[in-house]
Amino acid sequence: MVEMSGIKKNFIKGMNKVMLDCNTATLFVTKREYVKLGCVDRMKLAMHLSTCKYCRRFAKQSITISHHISKLSKVSENGHRHYLTEAQKSKMIKEIEKQKFTS
Amino acid sequence: MTEKTQNNNVKTKPDDWVKLHGDYLYNYAYSRVQSKESAEDLVQETFISALKSIKSFRGDSSEITWLIAILKRKIIDHYRKLSRKKETVTSQFSTPFQDNSGMDGHWILDRAPKDWHIKHEDPMRQSEFIFILEMCIAALPEKWRSVFVLKVMEELKSDEVCKEIGCSSSNLWVIIHRARLQLRECLENRWLK
Questions:
Q1: What pLDDT, on the 0 to 100 scale, is given for residue B5?
Q2: Do B184 and A61 lie within an 8 Å CB cutoff?
Q3: Is A78 within 8 Å of B33 (Cβ atoms)?
Q4: Average pLDDT by consecutive 10-residue portion of chain B (193 residues)?
Q5: A4 pLDDT exceeds 70?
Q6: Which A residues in the span 1-60 are in contact with B, Cβ-Cβ below 8 Å?
Q7: Distant-in-sequence contacts of A66-70, Cβ < 8 A, 24+ apart
Q8: Distance between alpha carbon B46 and the CA centroid of its chain, in Å?
Q9: What ipTM describes this predicted complex?
């Protein structure tokens, strides 16, 4: 029994070298959005994703999140989400006026 | 008199900047600092810096592009200053992965991604999603938020981010990874409700 568990441990160790855990797989999913993964890492990730439905969901959701982040980052000329109040604006104008005369 | 000292390439008077570009700059800043006060300060500082460097504006770009370039620098400075401060709230990262079990590194089942059933076409749901996304970014720990905004939203190179914030390259990926894990979970918890 002891020997068996030893073999089992070694097997798991060996498998871990080839198979990614979800923590590493999701790190690779994140990384590949910004940099090109190496060939081995790409293969490991593909293998993991083919067997893990949660990481597949994570990958799919990552695309959705990135899509919305880029929407949030882009400010469109006509569709503002926030507005300066008139009070804030006149405060800014006053400050500009002040600076014009001091500089 | 002021007209004469003003650069000819600048088409509008500084007095009109607020009216013409104020909201645009404010939205740009707000999406990156997630705070009304900070966004307002950054826009104000942008106008003051622009005024000081008005002579160097060559008119190669449009006025708004020039102002955005100044604002971008202000945003980096904002986060650099934040990163110099010791974080007041020490937030512990609560990993959604198993630890100390036979399944180390695999999802804790009730924190694993759920099916979102997202329909891209629905504009109402989309703006709701962006609204929650903004809240979730705001809820990130300061250091993560700094790295996340500069790398992901401002699209700075990794070494530039590290130079400003003070982190190593491998550390940067760990931070972005954790930030995205937390963002995902925050979105799921608030949006699927």
A1: 44
A2: yes
A3: no
A4: 48 81 94 94 95 80 90 96 71 83 88 84 80 94 93 94 90 94 95 78
A5: no
A6: 21-24, 26-27, 30-31, 34, 54-55, 57-58
A7: A66/A33, A68/B126, A68/B129, A68/B130, A68/B133, A69/B133, A69/B152, A69/B153
A8: 16
A9: 0.86
Closest Cα of chain B to A96: distance in Å?
6
Inter-CA distances, B80 with A12, A89, B9, Å: 44, 27, 32
| Dihedral sign of CA atoms B87, B91, B92, B94 in order | negative
What tokens does B107 get? 């999802």
Cβ contact B148:B140 at 8 Å:
yes
CB contact under 8 A, B28 and A75: yes
Q: Is B102 exposed, middle or buried (0-12, 13-18, 19+ CB in 10 A)?
A: exposed
Whole-angstrom distance, CA of residue B50 vs CA of residue A7: 69
Predicted structure pTM score: 0.85
Q: Which two tokens stand for residue A69?
A: 């982040």
3-state secondary structure of B97: strand
Q: Which residues have a Cβ under 8 Å from the Cβ of A91 and sit 6 or more positions away? A: B44
Q: How far is A18 from chain B (nearest CA, A)?
A: 14
- Among B139, B136, B135, B166, which Cα is nearest to B150's? B166
Distance of alpha carbon B79 from alpha carbon B154, whole angstroms: 12
The pLDDT mean for chain B works out to: 86
Which tokens in the block code for residue B11? Answer: 């088409």
Cα–Cα nearest to B158, from B144, B172, B141, B175: B172
Give the amino acid at B89.
V
